[in-house]
Input
Amino acid sequence: MNILNICDTQVWDLVAYQALHTAARFVKTGHNAAVLCHKNSRLDEECRKLKVNTLPITLGLKFGFFETGGWDIVHFYNPDSMNPLFLKKARASSKIFVTQLKLGNPRAFEKLSLLEPYVDRYVAACNSVQEEFARSGIDQRKTFTVPPALNLGRWESAMLIKPAMFLRRPYRVGMVSMDPSLKEQELFLLMAKEVLYVLPNTNFLIVGIKDERLRDMARKLGISHKVDVLWERNDMPEVMAMMHIYAKTAVREGLSMSLIEAQASGVACVVPRLRGLSDFVVCDRNAIIVEPGDVLACTKAVVHLINNPPVCHTMSKMAFDYVSNNMSLPVVCNLLLRLYEEALA
Output
């Protein structure tokens, strides 16, 4: 099968990750797959590392000046800025798929609904995205839910050391956030202060956006000696391996790559009840769900996990099993291939 993934993003995020790793998996399993992306972007660089062929996104392409022949499937990932003319031209010789991973922008879903005459299948990354498809008026017979994929690899290695990690004390509670407003990080630090009142030996870890104000916040709260700030990292499996508990203190809905990675690393998770985040959680089984912005509820959940190591360990194992069974790259790509085959048939 000839498959072209199209990802019109300049940043390295969950969307780019999906376009890259699904294409790499298809190539590995004997298909002809390539990625259409911005030249010299991080996605372009990662494709070269995995020996996935790339085609450049140009201004002319966005206005439909592109030869689309030869591809059985043309799969768009979050096509926010693609011209309908390009879709129309591509559909003349290919089946068109659109995957939507992001939430929180009603206008984006309205645009997707206008593209319906040219789209064969809409793929939702979670139930909340599926609901947005329905709300925007897209024919539900065209929509399917396929979760985001994770290339487990090194994450499985992190999971293997978890039994030994849960015997270590003190516990380490971590979070990953690129929130430029620092609201998520502030809530995490407030939670850390409350936890330290009860369990003063606990350690904390913040990974993500580089901003010295984070250290200032920790100092003002009097907990800087208990909080490590690592900035953005490229060795996330190793970082996740150092955590016992992952506390997601987000206040906005949306999918989170770091939450999926934490589950794949066998880290017990505390997650706010927000669309996109809680879609991948069964409360008290593979995570604990709390109300968003509720510092005391998050504190209570973290303290409960620390005080109950068997519960924490069992939850971490179930989190890994959930990702492995539902979101591993082979599972997700097999689902996509079945949808491709049905569309072509």
User: Anything to note?
Assistant: The mean pLDDT is 87. The chain has 15 helices and 13 strands. The longest strand covers residues 2-7.
